[in-house]
């Protein structure tokens, strides 16, 4: 029951995801997402950005990012995270876990109420994908930072 | 499946993808974005500036 942290970023795109974090294909475990931050490190400007976290059943094509254990005594994660999608994860229609509209100048942090985490099944390649389906203007670089417990 | 993509100048990138073809394409996009966007590229993309052509794509898991 170790905790892991990942940072994902990409040049904002309304059609391609920031990234995904899914259970491993051969050693799947449940993931319990409990702390997620969305924001932009681009030159400050006014744009409306919609950030979404949605359940997915494939990772898509992404640059691998290794989740770092929050406690260095823990073993490496079995799960797979990646950023900067060029082929989308397979999203499950309607299963949107977070949908937050934020100005580019702002940062949004979601923290689960203890015991009310977003849990994904111990099924191969099931997890969450993180998207910016609406950006009112420009292509700002966006970052999503995620804390997750693996069980 | 995870792939290790190696560029002509020796840099490598790990890519999760359903196919070797998509993994190669992803790596090419990263390099193209790094070269085209310059300082506006993400830090991850900037690391692959001038990495050159993809020379190999090998499955690692």
Q: How many runs of DSSP E, i.e. beta strands of chain A?
A: 12
Shape of chain A: globular
Structural class of chain A: mainly beta
Mean pLDDT over the full residue set of chain A: 96
**Annotation field: number of helices of chain A:** 0
User: What's the tally of helices of chain B?
Assistant: 2
Report strand % of chain A: over 45%
Q: Which CATH architecture of chain A?
A: Sandwich
Give me the secondary-structure category of chain B.
alpha+beta
Our Rg estimate of chain B from Cα atoms comes to: 11 Å
By oligomeric state, this entry counts as: heterodimer
CATH topology heading of chain A: Jelly Rolls
CATH class of chain A: Mainly Beta
Order of helices and strands of chain A: EEEEEEEEEEEE
| Amino- and carboxy-terminal Cα gap of chain A | 5 Å
Q: What attributes characterize this protein structure?
A:
heterodimer, A: 151 residues, mainly beta, six-stranded antiparallel β-sheet, 12 strands, 0% helix, globular, B: 61 residues, three-stranded antiparallel β-sheet
What is the strand and helix layout of this fold?
The complex is a heterodimer of chains A (151) and B (61).
Chain A: E1 2-11, E2 19-22, E3 31-40, E4 48-56, E5 61-65, E6 68-69, E7 80-87, E8 91-103, E9 108-111, E10 118-120, E11 127-135, E12 141-150
Chain B: E1 2-7, E2 12-16, H1 20-37, H2 43-46, E3 54-59
Antiparallel strand pairs in B: 1-2, 1-3
Question: What is the structure about, briefly put?
Answer:
The complex is a heterodimer of chains A (151) and B (61). With 151 residues, chain A is mainly β.
Would you write up a description of this structure?
The complex is a heterodimer of chains A (151) and B (61). Chain A contains no helices and twelve strands. Chain A has 151 residues and is mostly beta strands. Chain A has one domain (2-150): Jelly Rolls. In chain A, strands 1, 3, 6, 9, 10 and 12 form a six-stranded antiparallel sheet that branches. Chain A has a six-stranded antiparallel sheet with strand order 5-7-2-11-4-8, with no helix packed on it. Chain B is globular and about 35 Å long. Chain B has two helices and three strands. The longest helix of chain B is centred in the middle third of the chain and has 18 residues, at 20-37. Chain B has 61 residues and is an alpha+beta fold.
């Amino acid at each position: 029951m170790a905790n892991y942290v990942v940072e994902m970023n990409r040049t904002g795109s309304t059609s391609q995801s920031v990234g995904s974090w899914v259970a491993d294909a051969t050693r799947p475990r449940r993931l319990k997402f409990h702390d997620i931050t969305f924001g932009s490190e681009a030159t400050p400007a006014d744009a409306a950005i919609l950030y979404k976290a949605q359940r997915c059943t494939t990772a898509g094509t992404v640059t691998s990012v290794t989740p770092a254990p929050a406690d260095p005594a823990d073993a490496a994660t079995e799960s797979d995270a990646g950023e900067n999608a060029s082929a989308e994860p397979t999203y499950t229609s309607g299963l949107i876990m977070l949908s937050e509209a934020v100005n580019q100048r702002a940062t949004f942090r979601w923290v689960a109420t203890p015991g009310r985490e977003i849990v994904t099944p111990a099924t191969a390649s099931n997890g969450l994908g993180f998207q910016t389906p609406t950006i009112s203007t420009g292509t700002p670089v966006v970052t999503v930072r995620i804390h997750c417990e693996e069980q | 499946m995870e792939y290790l993509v190696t560029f002509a100048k020796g840099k490598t990138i790990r890519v999760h993808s359903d196919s070797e073809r998509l993994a190669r394409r992803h790596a090419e996009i990263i390099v193209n974005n790094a070269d085209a966007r310059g300082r506006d590229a993400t830090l991850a993309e900037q690391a692959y500036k001038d990495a050159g052509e993809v020379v190999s794509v090998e499955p690692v898991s």
